[in-house]
């Protein structure tokens, strides 16, 4: 295993001195807006609470990438997957739902457990069934992505956890609320690595993932507190993301702006492109904003999780996702 690639001890960059470095100009990438405005399910995220992810070329040395991953808790890598393969995946998914697009891709019908309050049973059936289709399974197991994870980690071999969720985020719809992944992977050690894969381009205001700056140590602190509070629970209750010490949804907060101010950290956003991936630590805190992309582009993405082959992990994740599976 590569040294330090999945260290549990948080390593953070030195604090900036006043005036040492200014924030990126948030207006530069949105010429038709005076400011970049993002909103979570709980309200607006102030401009002062926003920043930009640092991109990394896939040709960067593995040593440099490991250093960035351990320092920042994430690694946004450009062009890992062939663009044509990503666009083909998006096209296939939309074709898989012929005639349904106008009916189910509407604000308010998604999220909150994937919008299953919507009574469109055909949509529900197809959305669930898509996770077992060969074209989706093949995309998740894309050889370029697996090879990159091995290259970065230095693992001799990787195990891709079977459970993943293909997530649509429609303009004006719901969001992914504030959380870190180890909440959902507590039956194993915090040694997994997640690849968030946008399926198509996704502008900064298009509902892509936001990462809370320098938040690995925050996630570690919160998990210690949750574990302390759960000492009297049974083992099954303790590993549940929905136990009595947690919010009923397993999340930390629905108001991303409020959360970032409480911890005095910025949410880092990006203009993602087809072929990009973001790798992140199991304690890295993240969320998404409401999709407010001006052209009405639907954001599609999936989350893939890897562990080192032969090492302990949360075996509950070796099954295809279905609604109500307890994770």
From TrEMBL:
InterPro entries the record matches: Phytyl_CoA_dOase-like
Region (Disordered): 1-24, 38-62
Gene3D superfamilies linked to this entry: q2cbj1_9rhob like domain
Lineage: superkingdom: Eukaryota
Entry-linked PANTHER family: EXPRESSED PROTEIN, PHYTANOYL-COA HYDROXYLASE
Protein name: Phytanoyl-CoA hydroxylase
């Amino acid at each position: 295993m590569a040294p330090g690639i999945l260290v549990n001890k948080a390593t953070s960059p030195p604090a900036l001195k006043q005036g040492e470095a200014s924030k990126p100009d948030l207006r530069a990438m949105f010429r038709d807006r005076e400011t970049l405005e993002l909103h979570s399910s709980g309200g607006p995220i102030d401009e002062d609470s926003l920043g930009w992810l640092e991109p990394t070329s896939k040709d960067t040395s593995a040593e440099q990438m490991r250093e960035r991953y351990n320092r920042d808790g994430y690694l946004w890598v450009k062009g890992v997957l062939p663009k044509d393969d990503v666009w083909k995946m998006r096209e296939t998914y939309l074709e898989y739902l012929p005639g349904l697009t106008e009916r189910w891709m509407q604000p308010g019908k998604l999220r909150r457990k994937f919008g299953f309050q919507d009574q469109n049973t055909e949509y529900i059936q197809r959305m669930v069934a898509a996770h077992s289709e060969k074209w989706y399974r093949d995309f998740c197991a894309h050889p370029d992505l697996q090879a990159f994870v091995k290259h970065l980690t230095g693992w001799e071999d990787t195990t891709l956890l079977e459970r993943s969720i293909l997530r649509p985020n429609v303009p004006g719809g719901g969001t992914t609320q504030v959380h870190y992944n180890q909440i959902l992977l507590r039956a194993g050690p915090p040694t997994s690595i997640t690849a968030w894969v946008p399926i198509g381009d996704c502008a900064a205001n298009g509902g892509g993932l936001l990462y809370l700056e320098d938040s690995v140590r925050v996630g570690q602190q919160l998990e210690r507190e949750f574990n302390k509070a759960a000492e009297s629970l049974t083992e099954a209750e303790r590993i549940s993301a929905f136990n009595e010490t947690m919010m009923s949804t397993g999340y930390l907060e629905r108001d991303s702006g409020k959360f970032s101010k409480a911890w005095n950290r910025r949410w880092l956003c990006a203009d993602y492109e087809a072929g990009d991936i973001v790798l992140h630590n199991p304690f890295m805190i993240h969320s998404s904003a409401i999709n407010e992309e001006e052209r009405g582009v639907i954001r599609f993405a999936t989350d893939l999780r890897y562990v080192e082959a032969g090492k302990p992990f949360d075996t509950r994740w070796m099954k295809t996702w279905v609604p109500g599976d307890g994770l």
